[in-house]
Design goal:
By secondary structure, the protein is α+β, with helices and mostly antiparallel strands. Helix content is 15%, strand content 36%. It has 2 domains: 1-30; 31-170, Galactose-binding domain-like (Jelly Rolls). It has one helix at 2-27, and strands at 34-38, 45-48, 52-54, 66-69, 78-81, 89-96, 109-114, 119-124, 134-141, 148-152, 159-161, 163-170. The N and C termini lie far apart (60 Å). It binds calcium ion. Calcium ion binds next to loops.
């Protein structure tokens, strides 16, 4: 009997600690924490121009679908991922884009990171590394929603807008900061 009581106590303590950790994640951010904005998110994602939803795209979407736009030299079809960050600090930014079953996506899709007073532009090959998180680097952001990531249809193929993840990595500058 004593052994059974002991196991019960261990399970009880483990469960209590587990619940506390989950509460901590939702009520007060603990380090590290992350914010994901998908094209289906109710807050933080906006577009301009003509974007179409596709649930196919090689089955590599984040969530249920992605948005795509026809290549357009003017790049006037724009998508924005704008997080409302809970604190100043350094965040690693990851992008996720779907597969390219029709072989018509850009190999130099513009992705722009606007952080604390800086703008960094990347040319992303959408035909590679799709269906997973790809890091653009670590950037300093201010608390609030001034910073964002955007993409547009001005590449050499169709544009994709799927998901962006911001992972808090601390308040001190890491070595590989952009
Ligand atoms: Ca998505």
């Amino acid at each position: 009997m004593r052994k059974i009581v002991g196991i019960g106590l261990v399970v009880f303590i483990f469960t209590t600690v587990g619940v506390s950790l989950v509460k901590g994640m939702t009520e007060k951010p603990v380090e590290p924490f992350e914010i994901i904005i998908d094209n289906s998110s109710k807050e933080g994602f906006t577009t301009k121009g003509q974007w179409m939803s596709d649930q196919g795209q090689g089955g590599q979407n984040y969530g249920t679908d992605s948005l795509w736009a026809y290549v357009n030299p003017k790049g006037t079809d724009i998508a924005w991922w704008r997080p409302n960050l809970p604190k100043d600090g350094y965040y690693e930014v990851f992008i996720w884009y779907c597969g390219d079953p029709n072989n018509d996506h850009a190999t130099n899709a513009p992705f722009i990171v606007v952080s604390d007073g800086k703008t960094d532009t990347f040319a992303i090959n959408l035909k590679k590394n799709y269906g997973k998180w790809n890091s653009l680097g670590i950037f300093r952001f201010r608390k609030g929603d001034k910073g964002y990531v955007s993409t547009n249809s001005g590449g050499n193929g169709n544009a994709i807008a799927d998901a962006v993840k911001f992972v808090f990595v601390g308040t001190r500058k890491p070595k590989e900061t952009k």
